[in-house]
C-alpha cells in the first residue's frame, strides 16, 4: 500500500516519519528545494532524547498525480482550494484531510466521487528545518468518514505503528467540533499574549479571559454539556503546558494563521443565528492585524 502526503510542514513531516515505517510513503512539498533536502537527508524525527532518520521519497506538489492508495492532505486550510482543484482532476481514490478548525468542510463538498475522511490530530509537532521535525507531544489522530466508503480508513488505522495510532470515530462533525472548541479558546489567546498553553491556566487573569471566551464560544455553538467542554480545555492547557500553539508559531514565523478556519467559522455561525460574538470578533481582528504586521516586517 502506498501513502502520499501533501504538505511538508510539521504535521506532514510527522506523518511521513511514522507512516513510512508501515507503508511505502511519498511526501509532496511546496518547493522543489525542500524536496531535494528531504531526498538528501531523509526525514529526521526527534522525540525526547532520541533521533531517527527515515528515507522517504519527496517530490514537489506539482508532481502529485494521486496514484497512491491513500493521500493525507496536511496543508493549511488557506492552501486547500488549489489542492482540491488538483484532487478533482486526479485519480486519487481515498483522501484524509487533517486541517484545524471546521471552515474546510464547505471546501470539501466540492470534491466529487472520492472517498474522504477528516482527521483531528492531537500530537504536538514542531518543524525545525526542511527535513527535521520534533515530536513534542504524544497523542492520537482521530479520523471519521466524511463521504464515500471507509474500508480504506479502517485498513490504514489497523496498520499504522502502535505509537502513532489512528482512532476511528463515528461522527465527523462532533469529532471536529471538540477540537474546534479547544483551538478557538486556546490558540488566539496564546497568539496575542505570546505565551505557552499552560500560562492560560496558571495566570489567574488569563484564566478568567479564557473562561469568558469559552462562554461566548459555547453560546454560539449552543453547547449542552458546557462544563465538560471547559474542563477539557483546561486539561489540554495543562497537558500541553510547555507547548506553543500553532497560531502563535505561525505569527512568530510570519505565516498566515488558520484563524479563518477557526474563529471565522464561529463568526459565520454567530451571524447565521443572529448572535453577538464581540470577544470572538475582537480576537479575529487582532489576529488578522498581527498577520499583516508580522508579514510586513519580513519585507
TrEMBL record:
<keyword id="KW-0566">Pantothenate biosynthesis</keyword>
<keyword id="KW-0521">NADP</keyword>
<dbReference type="InterPro" id="IPR003710">
    <property type="entry name" value="ApbA"/>
</dbReference>
<keyword id="KW-0560">Oxidoreductase</keyword>
<protein>
    <recommendedName>
        <fullName>2-dehydropantoate 2-reductase</fullName>
        <ecNumber>1.1.1.169</ecNumber>
    </recommendedName>
</protein>
<dbReference type="InterPro" id="IPR008927">
    <property type="entry name" value="6-PGluconate_DH-like_C_sf"/>
</dbReference>
<dbReference type="InterPro" id="IPR013752">
    <property type="entry name" value="KPA_reductase"/>
</dbReference>
<dbReference type="InterPro" id="IPR013328">
    <property type="entry name" value="6PGD_dom2"/>
</dbReference>
<dbReference type="InterPro" id="IPR036291">
    <property type="entry name" value="NAD(P)-bd_dom_sf"/>
</dbReference>
<dbReference type="Pfam" id="PF02558">
    <property type="entry name" value="ApbA"/>
</dbReference>
<feature type="domain" description="Ketopantoate reductase N-terminal">
    <location>
        <begin position="3"/>
        <end position="146"/>
    </location>
</feature>
<dbReference type="GO" id="GO:0015940">
    <property type="term" value="P:pantothenate biosynthetic process"/>
</dbReference>
<dbReference type="Pfam" id="PF08546">
    <property type="entry name" value="ApbA_C"/>
</dbReference>
<dbReference type="GO" id="GO:0050661">
    <property type="term" value="F:NADP binding"/>
</dbReference>
<comment type="pathway">
    <text>Cofactor biosynthesis; (R)-pantothenate biosynthesis; (R)-pantoate from 3-methyl-2-oxobutanoate: step 2/2.</text>
</comment>
<comment type="similarity">
    <text>Belongs to the ketopantoate reductase family.</text>
</comment>
<dbReference type="GO" id="GO:0005737">
    <property type="term" value="C:cytoplasm"/>
</dbReference>
<dbReference type="GO" id="GO:0008677">
    <property type="term" value="F:2-dehydropantoate 2-reductase activity"/>
</dbReference>
<feature type="domain" description="Ketopantoate reductase C-terminal">
    <location>
        <begin position="175"/>
        <end position="291"/>
    </location>
</feature>
<dbReference type="InterPro" id="IPR050838">
    <property type="entry name" value="Ketopantoate_reductase"/>
</dbReference>
<dbReference type="InterPro" id="IPR013332">
    <property type="entry name" value="KPR_N"/>
</dbReference>
<comment type="function">
    <text>Catalyzes the NADPH-dependent reduction of ketopantoate into pantoic acid.</text>
</comment>
Amino acid at each position: 500500500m502506498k501513502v502520499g502526503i501533501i504538505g511538508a510542514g510539521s504535521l506532514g513531516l510527522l506523518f511521513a516519519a511514522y507512516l513510512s515505517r508501515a507503508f511505502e510513503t511519498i511526501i509532496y512539498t511546496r518547493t522543489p528545494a525542500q524536496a531535494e533536502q528531504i531526498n538528501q537527508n531523509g526525514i529526521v524525527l526527534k522525540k525526547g532524547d532520541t533521533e531517527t532518520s527515515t528515507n522517504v521519497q519527496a517530490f514537489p506538489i506539482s508532481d502529485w498525480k494521486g496514484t497512491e492508495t491513500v493521500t493525507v492532505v496536511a496543508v493549511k486550510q488557506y492552501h486547500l482550494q488549489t489542492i482540491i482543484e488538483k484532487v478533482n482532476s486526479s485519480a486519487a481514490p481515498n483522501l484524509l484531510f487533517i486541517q484545524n478548525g471546521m471552515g474546510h468542510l464547505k471546501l470539501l463538498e466540492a470534491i466529487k466521487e472520492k472517498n474522504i475522511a477528516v482527521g483531528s490530530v492531537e500530537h504536538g509537532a514542531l518543524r525545525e528545518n526542511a527535513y527535521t521535525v520534533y515530536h513534542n507531544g504524544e497523542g492520537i489522530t482521530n479520523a471519521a468518514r466524511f463521504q464515500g466508503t471507509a474500508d480504506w480508513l479502517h485498513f490504514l488505522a489497523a496498520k499504522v505503528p502502535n505509537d502513532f495510532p489512528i482512532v476511528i470515530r463515528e461522527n465527523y462533525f462532533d469529532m471536529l467540533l471538540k477540537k474546534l472548541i479547544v483551538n478557538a479558546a486556546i490558540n488566539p489567546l496564546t497568539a496575542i499574549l505570546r505565551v505557552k498553553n499552560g500560562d492560560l491556566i496558571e495566570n489567574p487573569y488569563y484564566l478568567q479571559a479564557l473562561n469568558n471566551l469559552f462562554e461566548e464560544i459555547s453560546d454560539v455553538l449552543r453547547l449542552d454539556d458546557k462544563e465538560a467542554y471547559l474542563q477539557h480545555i483546561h486539561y489540554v492547557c495543562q497537558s500541553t503546558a510547555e507547548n506553543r500553539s500553532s497560531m502563535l508559531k505561525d505569527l512568530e514565523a510570519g505565516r498566515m494563521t488558520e484563524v479563518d478556519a477557526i474563529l471565522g467559522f464561529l463568526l459565520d455561525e454567530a451571524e447565521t443565528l443572529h448572535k453577538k460574538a464581540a470577544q470572538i470578533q475582537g480576537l479575529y481582528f487582532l489576529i488578522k492585524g498581527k498577520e499583516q504586521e508580522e508579514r510586513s516586517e519580513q519585507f
